[in-house]
Structures are given as C-alpha cells and as structure tokens.
Amino acid sequence: MTAPGVARYRSRVATESSLVVERGGGVLSLRLHHPATRNALSVDDLVALDAALRDDARDPAVRCVVITGHEPGSFCSGLRLDESAAGDMQSGRAKEAADELFALLPTVAVPTLAVVDGPAYGAGCELALRCDLRVASDRASFRIPAAKLGIPYTPPSIEFLTRRFGQPAASWLFYTSSRIDAGEALRLGLVHQVVGVRRLPSLVAELTDRIAHSAPLVLRFFKAAVGAAEGVVDVDAVAATFLGATTSDDFAETLRAIAEHRDPDFTGG
120 forms bridges with which residues in the sheet? Predict the structure, then answer.
C-alpha cells in the first residue's frame, strides 16, 4: 500500500506568527511554537492557522490535519493578552480572527486531530474541542476561565460546544472556570483517548497512518455528514460527497480488492 504524499514534505515557520507548518505522508501538521507564552495565540497565529486550513488542507494529497504544540508538554494557553496584543483585543480584531478560525475548523474537508500534551486554556481549549478527534497525554489539562476573567464568551461558541459535548460538560466548562485534568476530560467526553507522555507520539502516528491510508473520499463524505448533523455543514455537501465517493475510481478499487482478497490502494480519485 502506498503512503500518500510521502515525497511532498515541507516545513516553514510563518514569518509573522509562531506557527510551524509541516506536511508529509498525507498529514498536514500545524504546530504552535511560542514557548514564552505557552503558545498563546496572537492575531497573526489565528490568521496563519486559518490560511493553512483554507489553503494547505485543500490539497488532495492531505488526508488529515494535526494541530498541536511544537514543544513537549504544551498545547495552547489561549489568546495572547500581553501589552503587545492589547490593541487587537480592544479593536475586536482578535475576537474576529478567533471566531473565523473556530467556525472554519469543523468544516475542513478532512479529519482534524488535536494532540494535547499540556494546558489547553481559553481559546486554546476551544481550538482543541473544535477538532474532530482529540487525544491527550496524562499531563494535559483543559479550562475556559472566561467567567473568572470577566470575558463574555461568544454565543456561537457556547452553542457549538454545548451541541457537541452536551449540557453537563459545557456547563462545567463555562460556569466553574475549573481546570479539568486529562482523566476528567476523558470522562466528560472532551477527549477520545488519554495515554502516557511516552506513548503519545506513537498513538498519533498510528491514528494518522490509519486515516491517511483510508479511503479519502469516504472520509470526506463522513466529515460532511457528521458536520451536517452538528449543523455546521450544508446538507447539499453531504449528497455531493456521497455521490463522489460512490462513483469514484477508489470505489471501483474497493470492489476489485474485495474480489481479489487484498487490501485496496486508494488514490483519492
């Protein structure tokens, strides 16, 4: 079975943001890299993430997207609230950029995976929770301290998180401002799997490899169907992706592979 996109690898650090973008093996990795603020998001970071999801993730060679912290023990501590970011906060530019990114994430055509190896607070918590899949190390933690800080959270975010995770989990996140450790996050359904720190890289490699070698058009259909059920994707997209998956060369390859008693080799066509 051929690994999609192995030869297509690139790495860059965006010039005005702390985002490191890597691509290889069908996986687009977006790594936040600002250790001094525990990867707090500037407007430039939000815009860079948005651009990568709109542009890089649309490449047919990309089968899934991983969002994580660049350094061990990290994820994202929220929006950057230091003096340099005060103007963006007061002008509403930071809120606008965050709202656009969070609205985009559930609509990305391929599965998105948040890998949380440290604190995911505020906007960093929502960044993780907006991804389709979420895995965490046992040192990860989650928190939305908006009530404690006196910051009204946006209605679309509250609606989305409540719809996705249910009233009990959303109420705990918003009302208490409590730090939720990895085990409690698993119990509340905020993450799908929690493993030890040393096990996390191999788990991520296993998951991304499994996704990258699955039928990409079927995954796009599944992504559209789940998104429509959550109210973030148009139902017409579900019909279109279903038709694309069932009339594709990949579906013909599936039928041949079944008849020949072998694994299918998907190309995305």
Answer: 76, 142
| Domains present along the chain, CATH in parentheses | 10-212 (3.90.226.10), 216-260 (no CATH)
> In the predicted model, what is the mean pLDDT of residues 166-174?
96
Give 264's DSSP letter: -
The whole-number pLDDT of residue 39 equals: 94
Burial class (CB within 10 angstroms; exposed 0-12, middle 13-18, buried 19+) of 84: exposed
Give the C-alpha separation, 88 to 13, whole Å. Answer: 22
Predicted confidence (pLDDT) per residue in 140-156, tens digit: 999 999 999 888 889 99
Query: Can you give the pTM of this predicted structure?
Result: 0.90
**Separation of alpha carbons 240 and 233, rounded Å:** 12
223-254 burial string, b = 16+ CB within 10 Å, else e? bbbebbeeebbeeebbeebbebbeebebbebb
